[in-house]
Write a sequence for this structure.
């Protein structure tokens, strides 16, 4: 396919730098990072094939990327935070069997994404893959739409993780000070503090981030055992019948990315899946009196479970602090992901003020403006919590629905390409001959999740318990389509337009 760029200056303008670093200061390949940060020869080939220039440091290797992926997924910690919902709607049996089902589905979905990441290791992720694998007639539009959906998902995810950390901190305060009263504005201030802290890691400490991810990976793994051992030793345990059978009704910064990225994705799934299973089984047996646990003033049943087991404020504080640290590390990873997603989409002119947002700091080699905008969005939207917690919860639900729908469209395009399109690009990590079956099974897994993610969690449904994510999702779609019709159709350059697969 012919490229639509008029000149080399036009091609690079959207990706690189500013007026203080004109084209004549670039080396022949358009790279601004030092040679040691440019990755392997295969990375350079991949970037040439993708039509991109190396403006970010490739300082993530397999272990640091495994840490990044594992903390980003953060399975066992997030599982603890939703114990209250599971306990009122399905019980421990639902937690056990539902977890196994979700683990199987996650392997199908992430396996499909990992294969595409090996074919096209780019920061654009889903919207880039749609641009390459969708039917040619719909490539530009679907890619643009997925770009907006995915960007929305990660921005909402950043807010959600920050809010989770902030409210867990509030819960810990309640445990230690019975006179403390939950205030919504306290939660908003904590969101600001947590997200600002994570932005510092993604700016001033960006060069150290791979090493930090390795340390956090250790805490992520060892922390699990620091929590489950006291629970198994000290908690009253349910019988297997009660625990398992009783239901109740109530890429552009990774070295050797084409190989490292898919491997780190799948090993993150394996590691987190195993650790999440251990935690799920632990909570099934050690939850205790469900009614009393759900009535906890901390608003997080797992905090009450920890205290009921240890009978010690100090021990509970330590156990909860481990979770706060690891979920904060998850937030650091989400800041990195959400800002790179925004930067990449701006690089292809998919959002307003694209040229400004596509700026990469010439000294830090990070998408600084995209990071600042991500922080600003979190600051502004978190103010909603002061007036309505249910509205904020809907925005958090919007993040999950957006990412799931982006996965659905992306994998659907891959299925189309496998059946009707040209042969898939070469890759160094493949699903092999079972690829099509795995892709289809992944779509079957995502479909009901997308459907029920719009539903309220509890009944009766009143304005305060309604899941307003469906309204917000529809608003994002309408806004993105309006922008596309007026400006985006002319300005947006689908990634496939600069790809050179014939190299």
């Amino acid at each position: 396919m012919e490229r639509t760029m008029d000149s080399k200056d036009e091609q690079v303008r959207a990706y690189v730098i500013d007026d203080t670093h004109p084209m004549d200061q670039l080396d022949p390949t358009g790279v601004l990072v030092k040679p040691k940060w440019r990755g392997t020869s295969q990375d350079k080939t991949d970037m040439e094939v993708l039509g991109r220039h190396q403006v970010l440091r490739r300082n993530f290797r397999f272990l640091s990327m495994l840490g990044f992926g594992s903390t980003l997924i953060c399975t066992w910690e997030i599982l603890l935070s939703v114990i209250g919902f599971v306990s009122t709607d399905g019980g421990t049996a639902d937690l056990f069997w539902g977890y196994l089902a979700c683990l199987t589905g996650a392997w199908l979905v992430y396996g499909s994404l990992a294969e595409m990441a090996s074919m096209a290791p780019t920061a654009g992720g889903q919207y880039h893959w749609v641009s390459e694998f969708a039917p040619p007639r719909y490539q530009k539009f679907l890619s643009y739409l997925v770009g907006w959906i995915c960007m929305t998902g990660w921005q909402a995810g950043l807010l959600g993780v920050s809010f989770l950390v902030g409210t867990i901190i509030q819960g810990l305060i309640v445990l230690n000070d019975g006179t403390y009263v939950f205030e919504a504005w306290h939660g908003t201030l904590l969101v600001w503090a947590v997200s600002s802290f994570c932005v510092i890691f993604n700016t001033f400490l960006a060069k150290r981030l791979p090493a930090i991810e390795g340390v956090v990976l250790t805490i992520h793994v060892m922390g699990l055992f620091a929590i489950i051992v006291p629970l198994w030793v000290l908690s009253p345990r349910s019988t297997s019948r009660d625990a398992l059978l009783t239901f109740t009704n109530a890429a552009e910064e990774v070295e050797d990315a084409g190989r490292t990225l898919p491997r780190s994705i799948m090993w993150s799934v394996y590691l987190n899946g195993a650790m999440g299973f251990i935690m799920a089984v632990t909570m099934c047996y050690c939850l205790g009196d469900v009614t009393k646990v759900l009535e906890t003033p901390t608003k997080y049943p797992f905090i009450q479970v920890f205290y009921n087991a240890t009978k010690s404020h100090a021990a509970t504080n330590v156990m909860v602090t481990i979770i706060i640290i690891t979920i904060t590390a998850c937030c650091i990873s989400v800041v990195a992901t959400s800002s790179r997603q925004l930067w990449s989409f701006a690089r292809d002119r998919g959002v307003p003020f694209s040229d400004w947002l596509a700026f990469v700091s010439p000294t830090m080699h990070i998408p600084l403006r995209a990071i600042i905008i991500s922080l600003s969005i979190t600051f502004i939207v978190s103010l909603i919590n002061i007036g309505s917690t249910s509205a904020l919860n809907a925005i958090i639900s919007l993040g999950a629905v957006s990412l799931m729908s982006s996965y659905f469209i992306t994998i659907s395009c891959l299925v189309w390409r496998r059946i009707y399109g040209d042969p898939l690009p070469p890759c160094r990590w493949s699903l092999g001959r079972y690829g099509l079956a795995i892709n289809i099974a992944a779509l079957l897994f995502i479909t009901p999740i997308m459907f029920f993610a719009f539903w309220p969690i509890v009944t009766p449904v009143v304005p305060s318990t309604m899941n307003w994510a469906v309204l917000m999702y529809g608003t994002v779609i309408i806004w993105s389509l309006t922008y596309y019709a007026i400006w985006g159709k002319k300005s947006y350059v689908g990634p496939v337009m600069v790809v050179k697969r014939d190299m």
Confidence is low (pLDDT under 50) at residues 1-31, 249-256. The radius of gyration is 23 Å. DSSP finds 21 helices and no strands in the chain.
